[in-house]
Each structure stands twice: as structure tokens, then as C-alpha cells.
């Protein structure tokens, strides 16, 4: 098994839990309303330690991507221009878009449809290098290849466009490398670091001259990086034919296991769905206490 195939398989194992979680957030009126009260959808875009509205208002028709958005609609879809709120062109992108849109329809939630896209290949979905702002919040470390995702996102930006990252520190360590949690994000000597048990990447060193990066840690602990594109990403750092060839092989291998894998995925989904049915009916404080007890067990 290639390293790429192993990584993708680990990522795929997290899909049933993710779908069960969102299905039950949307199922319950209380959890859905709680999420929307926390969400900035229908409000001015607001990002921690970065004035996105001010940045975007300098552009006549800004384009924004919320990459790996899940179903939280956390990113606002308005900016203030000349003292007036106006809508912006924001695309909610996630590889599980088909499943998420089924959940939207199932519970009759009037929210924008989510578009399909993969972080590791996002420049193929948006090839014109004209995006002003790409936002990745609590998603980069859930992807199959986060370093590749950073490079692809930068490539999709216009010159002086911004990639905004906001993540919990060292999630994989906290979650014991289960499900989507296969990578950690932290800051070391002002450098953005992505790491797991096998690898350690210094993103500042990797970016060289084609992008600048500012890192900080919010008072709430969140790791924040603001990356500004200065030049085109070197082509040898982007998707190559060997990568496409490797991905094709992975897809063929996975397709040959389709029936068994589909049964396993469906079984896991219903297992997690039953658990989430009860978990999401609990109060927030009770859920946090249960999570604490489980981690200590």
C-alpha cells in the first residue's frame, strides 16, 4: 500500500462519524438553532485577528472560498462598504458536499448548497488564480494532505490574495489520531508547523519568496496564520503527473473494494448516527463532561 493510499484510507474512515454528527446537529431544532446563533451566516464576515471585511471591501467584486467548510456556515457572507452591508460572492466548498446537501434537503434547511471540491486539488476547481480570500478553519488538519492543501490554496489566489488559517492546536494528539484527526498544527518560534508521528513540516520555510506568512495564537488557544500570495507558486510544488497517476491507482484500488467498503461505511454511519442521536439531544455542558470522562478513561 502506498503512503498516499494509506493516508486516504485513514481519512475515509472518518467519513461515517462526520456525516452522523452533522445529520444530528441538523435533526434537532435546539442544536441547529444553537449552531446558527454561533454562525455568522447572514452577517458581516468576521475572522479572529484579521479584518476580512476591510480587506475585501477594497475589491470591487471579491471572491471568497470557505474551504473544508463542513456544515457550520461559520463564515459570514456580508461585508461593510461605505457604511452599508452588502452580500459577497462566497463559495462553501467541501469534499462531502453531496452528503451534506442531502442533509440540507432532509431537514428542509434554507441554506446555500455546498459545492464539491478537494483541498488537495482546489486549484483544479478554481484554476483562474482570481480568488481574493480562502478561509480554512478547523479543516486543514482534517484533510488527507494538509501541506499540499496549503500550496493548492495559494495557487488558486490572485497575487496579494490571502489564505487565512484558524485551527485548534495539536488536534490529532488530543483525539489520539482517530477519524479525520491525523495531523497537528502548532507554532514554533513564530513558524507554522504541521506534524504527526511520521512527519514535521515548517510551512514558513516551505513558502520561500512566493508567499509571506504571519502567525499568532489567539487568547482562546487557536492557531492563526495569514498567508499572502506574492508570486505564482512554483509549478514543481503543485500537482504533477506522478501525483495524478498515483491518485488514479488509489481510486482503482478503492473501487475494487467498493461493496465491502460501502457496507462497512454504512454500518459505521448508522452506529455513529445512533450515538449522535442521543448525544446531540444533551445539553452542551453535559456533552463536554461526557467528553472529558471518555478522554480520561
What does this structure look like?
The protein is built from twelve helices and twelve strands. It is an alpha/beta fold and 297 residues long. The strands form three sheets. A seven-stranded mixed sheet has the order 5-4-1-6-7-12-11. It has a three-stranded antiparallel sheet with strand order 8-9-10. The radius of gyration is 19 Å and the shape is globular. Residues 293-297 have low confidence and may be disordered.
Termini separation:
33 Å
Number of strands: 12
Helix and strand pattern: HHHHEEEEHEHEHEHEEEHEEHHH
Percent helix: 40-55%
Q: What proportion strand?
A: 15-25%
CA-based shape: globular
Layout of secondary structure:
Layout: H1 3-13, H2 15-27, H3 29-38, H4 52-57, E1 63-67, E2 78-81, E3 84-87, E4 89-94, H5 97-106, E5 115-116, H6 122-125, E6 131-137, H7 146-156, E7 157-167, H8 171-174, E8 184-188, E9 191-195, E10 200-202, H9 203-207, E11 211-217, E12 223-229, H10 241-256, H11 258-279, H12 284-296
Parallel strand pairs: 1-4, 1-6, 4-5, 6-7
Antiparallel strand pairs: 2-3, 7-12, 8-9, 9-10, 11-12
Amino acid at each position: 500500500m502506498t503512503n498516499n493510499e494509506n493516508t486516504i484510507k485513514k481519512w475515509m474512515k472518518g467519513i461515517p462519524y462526520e456525516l452522523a454528527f452533522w445529520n444530528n446537529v441538523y435533526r434537532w431544532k435546539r442544536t441547529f438553532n444553537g449552531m446558527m446563533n454561533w454562525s455568522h451566516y447572514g452577517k458581516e464576515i468576521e475572522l479572529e485577528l484579521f479584518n476580512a471585511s476591510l480587506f475585501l471591501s477594497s475589491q470591487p467584486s471579491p471572491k471568497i472560498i470557505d474551504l473544508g467548510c463542513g456544515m457550520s456556515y461559520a463564515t459570514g457572507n456580508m461585508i461593510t462598504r461605505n457604511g452599508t452591508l452588502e452580500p459577497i460572492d462566497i463559495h462553501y466548498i467541501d469534499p462531502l458536499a453531496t452528503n451534506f446537501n442531502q442533509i440540507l434537503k432532509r431537514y428542509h434547511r434554507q441554506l446555500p448548497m455546498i459545492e464539491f471540491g478537494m483541498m488537495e486539488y482546489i486549484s483544479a476547481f478554481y484554476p483562474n488564480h482570481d480568488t481574493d480570500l480562502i478561509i480554512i478553519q478547523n479543516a486543514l488538519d482534517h484533510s488527507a494532505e494538509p501541506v499540499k492543501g496549503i500550496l493548492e490554496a495559494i495557487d488558486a489566489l490572485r497575487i496579494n490574495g490571502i489564505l487565512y488559517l484558524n485551527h485548534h492546536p495539536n488536534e490529532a494528539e488530543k483525539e489520539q489520531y482517530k477519524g479525520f484527526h491525523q495531523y497537528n498544527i502548532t507554532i514554533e518560534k513564530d513558524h507554522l508547523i504541521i506534524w504527526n508521528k511520521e512527519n514535521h513540516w515548517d510551512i514558513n520555510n516551505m513558502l520561500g519568496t512566493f508567499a509571506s506568512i504571519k502567525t499568532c495564537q489567539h487568547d482562546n488557544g487557536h492557531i492563526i496564520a495569514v498567508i499572502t500570495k506574492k508570486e505564482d507558486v512554483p509549478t514543481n510544488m503543485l500537482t504533477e503527473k506522478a501525483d495524478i497517476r498515483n491518485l488514479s491507482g488509489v481510486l482503482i484500488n478503492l473501487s475494487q473494494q467498493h461493496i465491502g467498503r460501502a457496507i462497512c461505511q454504512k454500518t459505521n454511519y448508522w452506529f455513529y448516527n445512533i450515538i449522535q442521536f442521543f448525544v446531540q439531544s444533551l445539553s452542551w455542558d453535559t456533552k463536554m463532561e461526557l467528553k472529558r470522562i471518555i478522554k480520561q478513561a
